[in-house]
Amino acid sequence: MLTDSHCHPFDLAACFPGAEEERQRLGIICAASSSSLEEFAYCEGLDSVMPCFAVHPQLLANSKEQRTNNKEQRAQSNSEVKKRDCWQERIVVLDRLAGEGRLAAVGETGFDLYNAAFRQTEKLQDEVFALHLEIALRYDLPLVIHVRRAMHKIFAHAAALKKCPAVVFHSWPGTAGEGQALLHRGINAFFSFGTTIMLNHREAMRCCALFPAGRLLSETDAPYQPLRTREYSSYGDLAQIVQTMETLRGETGMESIIEGNFKTAYCVH
Which residues are registered as beta bridge partners of 190? Predict the structure, then answer.
C-alpha cells in the first residue's frame, strides 16, 4: 500500500478537484496536516486519512508583534487584534481535539527561519513549538515537524522529543549526520522524503540512500512540492517517489517497508 506521511488534502482539493477520487483509486492512506477547523473537518471526514492539527510556523509571520502594550493595542482595529491572536485560539482547539482522541499527530509544527519575515517571529515560534510539544507529550501523540534553516532548535529540544512516541520529519531538510545524531540521542525519528529526491537535491538523495530502511517515509506535501513543469504535487506522485527511493538505495520492496514504518509512526493498528 502506498502511504503519504504528509499532505494537505483541503488545499489540494482547491487545485485539483479530483484529488480525493485519485487517492481512493490508488488506495493511499495518508496523514493530513491542518491549521484550521475547516481544514481539519474536511480531513476528518475522509476515509483512510489520519488527521493532524497544529499552528504552522509560517502562519506566525502574518502578524508583526504578538505582545503589545495597551496603547498600541487600542490603536489597532478589532480585526487586526483578532488576526494577531488567532494562533492562541488554535492552540486551544489543538488541545481540545487531542483530548477528544481525534488526532493522529500534532503537526505540522516546528521552526522556519528561511527568510527575514520568518526570522522576525523566532521568539514566537519558540513559544508556539513549546506548546505543541507539551500537548503531544500530554496526550502521547506523534509530532510532525517542519524545519527550515533551524535544525539547531530541534537539537535544543532533544530531551523532550525523546519522550514522544514518534517524531516525523516532513520533507527531511537536514544532513545525514544530523539525522544520525537525532537517532543517537534516542529520538524515535522517521525521515520523510518527497519530490525533492527527484529534483536533484543532493543531500536529500544522500540521506534517503543512507538512512536505515526502517526510518523512511514517503510523502507528497501535496499540493506544495511540485515536480518541474507541474503546478502542484498530488497523490499520483507517490509511486514515482517510492521508485526513486528504491533506485537510490539499490533495493526493492520499499513500498511495503514504508507502509510498515507509516503504521508504526502514526500508531495505526
Answer: 168
Please tell me whether the peptide bond between 17 and the residue prior to it is cis, using omega within 30 degrees of 0.
no
In this structure, what C-alpha cell is assigned to residue 143?
A: 509530532
Phi, psi (degrees; rounded to nearest 5) at 216: -100, 140
Phi-psi label, residue 190: left if phi above 0, alpha if psi -120 to 50, beta otherwise = beta
Spatial distance between the Cα atoms of 188 and 185, rounded to a whole number of angstroms: 9
Residues with Cβ within 8 Å of 160's Cβ and at least 6 positions away in sequence, in order, are 133, 137
Closest CA to 93 of 39, 36, 23, 138: 36
Q: Does domain 3-265 have CATH number 3.20.20.140?
A: yes
Extents of the domains making up the chain:
3-265
DSSP label of 88? H
pLDDT digits (tens, 9 = 90+) for 154-187: 999 999 999 999 999 999 999 999 999 999 999 9
Partners of 29 in beta bridges? 3
pLDDT value at residue 62: 64
Cell of 215: 526510518
Quickly list DSSP for 116-142. Answer: HHHHTTHHHHHHHHHHHHHHHHHTT--
Per residue in 4-28, pLDDT tens?
999 999 999 999 999 999 999 999 9
